[in-house]
Amino acid sequence: MNYIELELSLSSVDIYSDILQSDLCDIGFESFLDKKDGFFAYCQKDIFNQEDLDFLLNAFRENNPSVNVSYDIKEIEQQDWNMEWEKSYEAVLVDDFCYIRASFHPPIKNVEFNIEISPKMSFGTAHHPTTYQIIQLLRDEPLEGKDVMDMGTGTGVLAILCKLKGAKSVDAWDNDEWAYENAKENVMKNNVEVDVKLGDASGLSKSYDLFIANINRNILLQDMATYSKHLRTGGTLLLSGFYDNDVEILEKCANENNLHLVTHISKENWAALRFIKKQ
Q1: Of 64, 195, 205, 249, which is most buried with the most CB atoms under 10 A?
Q2: Domain ranges in the chain?
């Protein structure tokens, strides 16, 4: 099956990228890959509609006149897609702690955890600084006997790592169906027990000792109260998916919800935070 690749560039990526990706899902685009000034979006050729795309982008421009939007489109053959992905995909080593690889990479020795994933364009390969830093924070997180939530799980790599580290139970949720299916596949590849679900914070009903959310700033601000409500006293909240200049507003929101910042790390201007829920 052939795909349409949309390469979209924005003058304001941080604020508007998620909005456009959500809108593109409504017209058949099913996977996304971020780049410095925007993202790539992919749609099956058989369901791609140029008129729908033009209507969507024209409406976006009318509602956001200060944002410059440009795009290119090309067709990708499925065989070439897979070959190019395998040639370009590099395994990721996070210190001597965790090695994230595809099936065509052999596992390595002298590392605590080898995790095999098939990304299929879902977020969470550890190439991005946000996922990489959450993995770094998890290294120092005691997980044996703990209940864990990975909200916005993407590939499921963080949830898989938590289970391998000894967590009693791990829930992995994503509101994107592509990511949901991908996470289920990767959980099976790594032979771990993780409960993968299609959903978001509005569906939470239980409490956790560790809550992970590697999502964009606006969603984190919107759902912070819900995260805190479903985090046990003394529990840990790990956040990423935002820039260093977003930390102040996120910390303020967290403080208002009884969460205390204890760790702030940064990589390439992307931040990751560890909070503890107060007594």
Answers
A1: 64
A2: 3-85, 89-277
